[in-house]
Amino acid sequence: MKRVDPKTLRPHPLNRLIPDMRPEEWRDFYADIAMRGIRVPLEVLADGTVVDGRHRLQVALELGMKKVPVVDAPLNGERPEVYMMKAAVLRRHLTDDQSAMLAALWKEGNKRQGERMDLTSAGRPAEVQDVSPTRAEAQELFKVSRWKVDQATYVRQRSPELASKVHRGEMTLSNAYRKVKAAEGAQGNEAAQAAYPSGCNVITGPASLL
To answer: Residue 8: CA atoms inside 13 Å, Cβ hemisphere, count?
Structure first.
């Protein structure tokens, strides 16, 4: 372990896929570090990229710390982004729904690693290497079922706003999925009614012929 200036460190580009702490978690976390310092070293790559400890780094910078403890990340042959995601899943108390949404975002975001990903946008990231993540890889990485990954992907593609709420732990995935399906059903009914003139029955034709 060594101690370095936190200003020489930077979060991994894909860290934005990982949900932030909830406000109450952040307050307790911040207060603990302010009182007792950073007790768990940040795990970093040779170039100073943090793959485990972005919240600790943020607190250190906000508190104006001069030095923080770091260790080399023990990748053991894994890609840095995969190691970072595994560390986040193990360290953070994420719900299954959050993990499923993280898996959906991982499939999308890791296509071109490094984009500043906007969780409220349906646009795809655009930078860095294509590592072609698969649904199976996402399932294994985040320990969630295929059905949940598919549900999360469905919500993500159709309602980024609801997907963001699931990602932050503010809404369950099943509730978001039902809302999307209900909205699509309502839109379908409106479109069907608009396709027929007033006084027509959508199924049987003009009301005068009944």
So the answer is: 14
Q: What is the DSSP letter of 58?
A: H
Q: What is the pLDDT of residues 85-99, one digit of tens each?
A: 888 887 777 888 999
Neighbours of 10 (CB within 10 A): 16
Domains of the chain, start order: 1-92 (3.90.1530.10), 94-196 (no CATH)
Regions of the chain where pLDDT drops below 50: 112-132, 202-210
**pTM for the model:** 0.68
CA 37 to chain centre: 28
Q: Tell me if 107 sits within 8 A of 40, measured CB to CB.
A: no
Angle CA 206–209–210, to nearest 5: 100
